[in-house]
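Take one record.
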Amino acid sequence: MAGINGPIRITGFSGTLDTDSLIKDLMRAERMPLDKVLKQKQYTLWKREEYRSMNTALLSFRSAVDGLRFESNFETVKATSSNTGVLDIISGGANPSTSTISVTKLASSATIVGNKVSQSSSDPVTTGGTVTITGASGSANITITAGTSTLDSIVKDINNNSKTTGVKASFDQSSGVLYLSSTTTGSSSKIEITPQGTTNALAQVFNLDAAQLSKTGEDAEYTVNGSNVIKSSTNNVSINGVQVTLRGSGQATISATTDRSGIADKIKNFVEKYNEIVDLFSTAATTKKNRDYEPLTSEEKSSLSEKEIELWENKARAGTLYNDNLLTGTLSSLRSALNLPLDTPTGDQLKMLSQIGITVKKDYRENGKLEIDEAKLQDAINNRFDEVKQLFTQSSDTPADTPENIKKRRQELGFADRLYEEVTAQLNKFTKKIGSGSIEAIDDSVLGRELKQLGDKESDLERKLKDIETRYYKKFAAMEQAIQKMNSQSSWLVSQLGG
């Protein structure tokens, strides 16, 4: 029988005792302290998993709150172009306005287009020499070897040096034309091809004439509301805070207007995430443990199907965080933050979420979840928008250095910043409880230390069980030898007596 990670033993020589079964029964009783530790360890692992689920929900809630902390999130600028053939809108910017744009020229890169070449791109060239290609970024030498270099290899050499020069090349086999272009646009972009010697091998191989050996790019030119001509080295420009891409010559109007429609959705999302926290934390903290279900041992699992194990463990882990102080404390702190009126500069400003239609559900079975009167919320956004914004985003200069200042700062902070700080403080408590990573060796959290202690107990008990099992086998081996000897003596006596 193989013991607890022990050696392979051969027993039962006497044929009288089922040694393995006897020792297995004896070891079952000896294993009880180890099984108890393993169950404690499993409970702790389940608890850590539950805490991590709560931690993830808190992070999601904090993200929803974060979307209401800054004024820029309350009103965005939505911009449209009257002629997308002239310019496209990239982003709305921050300034609501209307601008008329007249584009006379687009920014272009420096480009060289060669004349037709009849040679195949894979055939060796007959002309050799070294040329210098200079772009906006710098210069590089390209060596062409007669009888070895091909059109393809020359193009590859040019592209291998594009980071240095800022020049890219391509060869169109169907038309027999070389294309060289700068990687940047504007008047500062350029391509210059100069020979090192009397022969311009690149010009001869790709059939370039003298006018094609030096090119520069051009800047974009446009006006805004009849302004002086504005030049840009790129077609991506900012016009009165709106990011646009110039597409072609002509005229277009940018209409940039304030869009407040998204703030109602952000507030609804905040309430939804809060209610998820209440549901999750309340359920976990009020679900009682069923003492009839404990973690299964390996031996118990071996007699059950996977489905039966799953059903059992679902019942066994239910109530893991029953009446947990961390969960109840988090809910209490969040409720307190929501119920504290905002300390505003003037008395007639909005001070409570209930004034914009966000109230606590009256049914006690809802555990303090929030509900929204959407009509009242929309009315507040439409008619008291700045106050709604202040209700969530008001800042405080009071440092959190004394109990009095902490209380004062909390009341001065808008609800979003107030909740953000509260959730962050609770997340720090979760981190102390469960740690921030998955590396057990450096986990110094409360549960991490508990798991280490249980792991040490597990190792000690396993060593003791090995010793106990070894002693049992030695004793039974001695017993079997004694029985075998006794049987032999008995048989001898019978034979001597003539039996």
Remarks:
- The CA atoms of residues 231 and 499 lie 126 Å apart.
- The chain has 14 helices and 17 strands.
- The two ends are 38 Å apart (CA to CA).
